[in-house]
Amino acid sequence: MLTSTDLLTRRRFLPLFVTQVLGAFNDNLYKNAMVLFVVYAVYSSAAEEAMFSAVAQGLFTLPFVLFSALSGQLADMRDKAVIIRRVKLAEIGIMTVGAAGLVLASVNFAVDSIAIPLLLLALFAMGVHSTFFGPIKYAILPQHLERQEVLAGTGLVEAGTYLAILAGTILAGWIAVEIAAVLVIALAVLGWFAGRQVPSAPAQGVVEPIDYNIWRSSINVVKGSMQDARVFYAILAISFFWTIGAVLFIEFPPLAKNVLTASKEVASLFLVVFSIGVAIGSVSINALLKGEVSARYSPASVVVMGLFVVAFHVVCRMWVPEAGGLYSVGEFILLPLAAPLLLCLMGIAIAGGMFVVPLYAFLTTVVDKSQTARTVAANNLVNSFAMVGGSALAMALNAINVSIVDQLLLAAAMSLISAWLGWILYQAELRLAPA
C-alpha cells in the first residue's frame, strides 16, 4: 500500500490535491478578508458584526441546499475531470466580482449600496462553486485510488484543505484588501490550470438522465444514499459536526474583538490554530486506523472535542479585556491566559479532525463507485441544512441577547449528540462487517 507521501507523487492524486488546496486557500482568503474588513472597519457593534457573520455563513451555505442533488447527479453521470475544469473556470469570474467589492469597500465607495452586495454576491457564487466541486473531491478518490488508499487520500485532502485555510486566513488578517483583491483572481487562474491536469474520471455504470427538479432530485438523492445504515449514520454524525462548526466559525471574529478585545490579526490566529489542529487530526487518525475505514475512534474523539469547547468557554469567562483598545498579536501571546486559550482551540480542532475524516471515507467506500458522488452530494445537502440551522440558531441567540461566550456551551452540548450518532455508526459497522 502506498503511503500518504507516495500518493502526493502520483498524477492520479496530486493534481486533484493541488486544485483542492488552491481552491480552499482562495476561498478562505476571500471570505476572511471580507468578514474581517466588515467586522473591523464597517460595523461598530457586536450584534451587527455577529449578524453579518451569520448572514455571510448562511449565504455561502444556501447553494448546498439548492444544488447538491444536481451536482451529485452530474458528477456521477459525467466525467468528473471535465466538471472540475468548468467549475474552476467559473471561479475566475466569481473572484473578479468579489475583488471589485473588496476594492470598493477599501476606498469607502458606496459601501452599503454596492460594495457589500458585491461581496455577498461573490460569496453566494463561491457557495455554488463549492457545491459542484465538493462531491467530486471525495467521489473521485475511489475511482483513482485503491480501496486501501482511500482513507489516506481522504485524510490528505482534509489536511491539505485545512492547511490551505490556514494560509488563506493568515493572509486575510495581515494584508491590505487591495492586495487580497489581486491575489484571489490570480489564485483562481492557478486553480483552473491545476484542474486541467486531473486525469479523466468518466461515469461508472449506466448513465442515467439528469433530474433538474431541485425538490424531487434532492429528496431522491438523500433517500437513495441513506439505505445503507452506515451511510445514514455517517451523514447524520457529520451534519451535527458541521452544525457545531457553523456556530463556532460564526462566533470567532466577534468573540475575538468584543470578548477578548483582540485585533483582527489575533482573530486570524484563532483560525490558523484551528486549521493546524484539524490537519493534525486528519493525518493522525489514518495512522491510528492503519488505513482501515472505521468509526472506532469517532465517539471518543467528539466527546473530547466537546470537553475542549467547555474549557475554551471557561477561559473566555476568566478573560480580562483590554481597557485601552485591542491587543496586538505580540501583546496577546504574552497574556497568561493566551496559551490555555490556544491549546483549547487546538484540542477542539485535533479531536474534530479525528472524528470526521473516517466518516467521509465511509461515504465513498461502502457504496458502489457509480453512486459515490451522489452519496457525497446527499451528505453535503444534509450538512447544509444543519449549517443553515446552526447559523439561524446563532442569529436567534444573538437576537435574544445570549452572550457569544455562553453560545459556546451549545456547541459543547451538540458534541454529545454527535458522539451518540458515531457510536451507533460503529455498531452498524460491526453488524454489517463481512464475517
UniProtKB/TrEMBL annotation:
InterPro entries: MFS, MFS_trans_sf. One of its GO terms (cellular component) is plasma membrane. The chain crosses the membrane at residues 50-71, 92-111, 117-138, 150-168, 174-194, 231-250, 270-289, 301-320, 332-360, 381-402, 408-426. Signal peptide: none annotated. It is a multi-pass membrane protein. Keywords: Cell membrane, Membrane, Transmembrane, Transmembrane helix, Transport. It is found in: Cell membrane. One of its GO terms (molecular function) is transmembrane transporter activity. Pfam families: MFS_1 (PF07690). CDD domains: MFS_MefA_like. The keyword Metal-binding does not apply. This is MFS transporter. It comes from Croceicoccus marinus.
